[in-house]
Specification:
By secondary structure, the protein is of the alpha+beta class. Helices cover 27% and strands 23% of the residues. Helix 7 runs antiparallel to helix 8. The chain starts with a helix and ends in an 11-residue tail after the last strand.
């Protein structure tokens, strides 16, 4: 009996200690040399509030840098081109500017040690050594919750700064902070993003409350300090403005602070705050638990099994990033501000309105993951796109703050929508969606009257000439537009619109118009049809002549909708030999070239395979189409091992870009990829190399009837990366692909793995 009790006790302890998916998330991974939109602080899936420490000065990649040993404070917005509402809990003499990362004593910064720092899903903490204050952060969707543990002090304060450094920078045209009572302040800040994002105007509204009365509210405008006031205003003009609340604290006393934000109004910020936090009754730990439970529910959709704990950390942290970077901009009751700065109301208050950076080439990463693991979220994205189309007349490329950003090129949001439709995710107005994507490929793009740019910049030339001429823009836009034409054609085919299907499919072959058989590459072309300058490397562009964030080597392979046609143009030997040599060259640099140029843009054109940016993230899987799938297995594995890390330094070597790198790893580590972005009428998954002994995908019954799909890889290891044989639902599978329909109907995909390539498996023409 004693032995039985002892065994039961051991089992109970073991079960209690078992790690959940959320416990594998390490938000500190990749926080060296990362961007504003990749942060170590807490957020919820697509959270409006992304509450995180900042320690860099204004400029590209501002935000948090792991190798800087001081922190300026904690800000609530870390969305693309958007920032604001910065807080810090100092003690001692007053300083009202963050000042310099290399000279922290000149501002209100504090030194810290990584030994006291921890970044998890739903929780961040650090000890601010200069003030002896322990900071802890958590969030709900639209609120930030701070817990500061102070030393004994007569000069403790919590500081709010409305103008602080960020990646894009911003100006404040008007701001004020108002005392509501001795436990609450509220305010507004009219902000405009800078650099190339000056179309993005937004008003940040906030309500901030404390669990303890403050002794006084004070503030500043530029260098002028005002004490014991109820109201601080910048007036009109670009001025720094802030406030600080004074407290007296005992040793170990905790002051808690809650912040609700909204782009609509102060009243809406208060609604967000009260709706999302009142039920927790100032219990910080309960909010942390709630956040972790929400994340764990999402991450548990995919269960991975392996003895390799580091691999599981990489998997779930990458999956976390795929859902952490983008933003919900509608309030808890469905209100939001449109591109004309007008208040709007979602018909369904529970339907979130999402915003983000552009969907540039997200069809190789985010689209497949969202539609497979979380089809409800994929549907939400389409509904969000169509809501913006309703109000502004165009689908957005990247609706930052629900503005038309015009960021990046082409219109790959089309693939996001068609991917969803073809996978049976259709809880949206299908006719309107089709109308909207056709407009993108038929009407010339232009500046929008609400700001920003809509549509395709080079569409007129593309339609008239069949390519984008060198004097008008990047030749690579020809390739991007051709893929988008194909996706519209596939949508038309599915809807029985035969005329449109033929029209857009014919245009999808325009990629051949920039193929120069003499050099064997996609080449810049003059308006008169003559060839322009050529080099396989360099010629990196954004809007001008060349190749968008890439080079001729990379874009020659950018024909995801017709690789058989490309192989016919190149010849299979050249297709394979060039590709393999490109991988061998790039492996020496861990498939990231950003650091090889005088600036990151120039660096994007240096190597053949640059996984640190989007244009050739499909590269390893090209071998599946050229009868050498074992090389797809080899090089996909090499990228997962060399490009993706598990530490703050080297987590992602290039631009993680709001989950795009993360989603690629998640799909690839399961052994899956979608070359055409899942935008074909009958979508398929290509097979790479699975990294786990077993993967169980729990399918959403609202969209997929199969219950679960299991991927098993027998004998898989660091060395056993090559598929020897495969079975799908017990039947021999001799091809490196299968239908999406077969996956979502449920079943099992079994692999036998080995250390040497089986060149016969999956290599038939």
């Amino acid at each position: 009996m004693k032995k039985l009790v002892y065994l039961l006790l051991l089992l109970t302890i073991s079960a209690g200690a078992q790690k959940r998916p959320v416990d594998y998330v390490d938000a500190m991974i990749g926080t060296h040399d990362s961007r504003w939109i990749q942060f170590p602080g807490p957020t919820r899936p697509f959270g409006m509030v992304k509450l995180s420490p900042d320690n860099q000065e204004l400029g590209w990649k501002a935000g948090y840098e792991y190798n800087i040993n001081n922190i300026a404070g904690f800000s609530h917005l870390h969305s693309w081109t958007m920032a604001g509402f910065f807080t810090m809990p100092p003690t001692g003499g007053l300083k009202n500017l963050p000042r310099f990362e290399k000279d922290p004593d000149r501002g209100y910064r504090s030194r810290f040690s990584h030994e006291s720092e921890k970044g998890e899903a739903g929780y961040y903490t650090v000890m601010l050594d200069d003030y002896k204050v322990k900071a802890e952060l958590t969030t709900t969707k639209r609120t930030g919750f701070h817990r500061y543990t102070f030393p004994k002090s007569d000069s403790a304060r919590i500081l709010v700064d409305l103008l602080t450094p960020s990646e894009y920078g911003y100006e404040i045209s008007y701001a004020h902070i108002k005392k509501v009572n001795d436990k609450e302040i509220e305010g507004i800040s009219y902000q405009q993003a800078l650099r190339k994002a000056n179309y993005n105007e937004y008003i940040l509204h906030f309500v901030m409350r404390f669990n303890k009365p403050f002794e006084s509210m004070n503030g500043w405008v530029k260098e002028e300090i005002t004490r014991n006031t109820d109201f601080i205003s910048s007036g009109f003009g670009h001025k720094d403005v802030g406030a600080f609340m004074n407290f007296k604290t005992e040793e170990g006393e905790q002051i808690m602070m809650q912040v609700g934000i909204s782009l609509v109004s102060v009243e809406q910020a208060r609604v967000n705050l009260e709706t999302e936090l009142n039920s927790f009754n100032w219990d910080f730990d309960k909010v942390v638990v709630d956040s972790k439970e929400e994340w764990n529910k999402l991450l548990s959709v995919i269960k991975v099994e392996s003895k390799n704990e580091e691999l599981k950390t990489k998997f779930y942290t990458n999956m976390y990033r795929a859902y952490a970077g983008r933003t919900t901009w509608s309030d808890v009751n469905g209100m939001y501000i449109d591109m004309y700065e007008k208040e709007q109301q979602m018909k369904n208050p529970d339907q979130p309105l999402y915003g983000s950076d552009g969907f540039w080439i997200s069809f190789w990463n985010l689209n497949p993951l969202w539609s497979l693991a979380t089809p409800e979220i994929a549907n939400n994205w389409v509904v969000s796109m169509l809501e913006i189309y309703d109000k502004g007349g165009w689908l957005p490329k990247g609706p930052t703050g629900i503005e038309y950003s015009g960021i990046m090129v082409a219109s790959h949001q089309i693939s996001l929508i068609t991917n969803a439709y073809h996978k049976g995710i259709r809880n949206f107005d299908v006719d309107k969606a089709y109308e909207a994507v056709v407009k993108l490929q038929t009407e010339q793009g232009h500046a929008h009257d609400a700001g920003g740019y809509v549509g395709n910049r080079n569409l007129k030339d593309y339609k008239e000439l069949g390519f984008v001429p060198d004097d008008a823009g990047p030749v690579s836009n020809t390739l991007a537009y051709a893929y988008d034409d194909w996706t519209v054609g596939q949508f038309a085919k599915a809807l029985g619109k035969d005329k449109d299907y033929k029209t857009f499919t014919k245009r999808a072959f325009n990629y051949k118009n920039v193929w120069d058989k003499e050099v064997g590459y996609m080449r810049r072309k003059n308006r008169d049809g003559s060839w322009a300058h050529f080099s396989p490397y360099g010629d990196v562009a954004w809007l001008g002549s060349g190749y968008v964030e890439g080079n001729a080597w990379q874009y020659t392979y950018f024909v995801p909708h017709d690789l058989s046609g490309l192989i016919e143009l190149m010849g299979s030997d050249e297709f394979n030999n060039r590709l393999e040599k490109g991988f061998e060259t790039s492996a020496e640099h861990n498939f990231n070239s950003e650091h090889l140029g005088s600036n990151s843009l120039e660096g994007m054109g240096v190597l053949p395979v640059n996984h640190g940016n989007q244009p050739n993230m499909q590269a390893p899987y090209l071998f599946n189409y050229s009868q050498k799938p074992w090389l797809a297995q080899k090089w996909a594995n090499e990228i997962m091992e060399k490009y993706y890390g598990s530490k703050p330094v080297g987590g992602w070597l290039g631009d993680e870009d709001q989950g795009q790198m993360g989603a690629w790893f998640v799909m690839s580590a399961m052994g899956l990829f979608e070359m055409d972005g899942g935008a074909s009428v009958k979508p398929i998954y290509e097979i790479g190399t699975p990294k786990f002994d077993k993967v169980t995908i729990h399918l959403d019954p609202k969209y997929y009837k199969g219950g679960k799909f299991i991927i098993e890889a027998k004998n898989v290891s660091d060395k056993n990366i090559y598929i020897q044989s495969a079975k799908l639902n017990g039947k021999v599978l001799n091809k490196p692909w299968f239908y999406h329909e077969e996956l979502v109907n449920g079943g099992t995909l079994e692999f036998k793995m080995g250390s040497k390539p089986n060149e016969k498996w999956g290599s038939a023409a």
